[in-house]
Request: fold
Amino acid sequence: MANVYDFTVKDRKGKDVSLKDYEGKVLLIVNTATGCGFTPQYEGLEALYKKYNEKGLEVLDFPCDQFGHQAPGTDDEINEFCVSRYFTTFDRFAKIEVNGDNQEPLYKFLKSQKKGVMGSAIKWNFTKFLINREGEVIARYAPTTKPEAIEADILKLL
Reply:
């Protein structure tokens, strides 16, 4: 796999989505949870999305229940929570695993491209990956990094 466009993921209804659909866009890929201390970051993610979507930014949300069972519920329940509580409008996909034997292949690739403080493993929810328009992984941000702190890096790619 050469870049993120080579991957296919499942949308929240279980249908295949080729990431080629996002070719030429700047992507912010995030593993999220609805019951996490970082869940309010949905506000910052939505603010970035609204501010820069017309210039080519896409936020791709991958709910993950691997960390403290903080993303309970079905994909539809998670989506309803995000839309009703945080008014999110960016794309949300099916719940995935980001570490271990059942990890989503996209995440195996992302982690191989940019290591974190604990090596390649995802430490917690709201780890963020910034992808340029060519599908290359440019940066990885810790869960504690607020979306607004990434804005300058996004602007460099838009």
The two ends are 24 Å apart (CA to CA). Helices lie at 41-52, 75-86, 105-113, 151-157. The beta strands are 8-10, 16-18, 26-32, 57-63, 91-92, 128-131, 137-141.
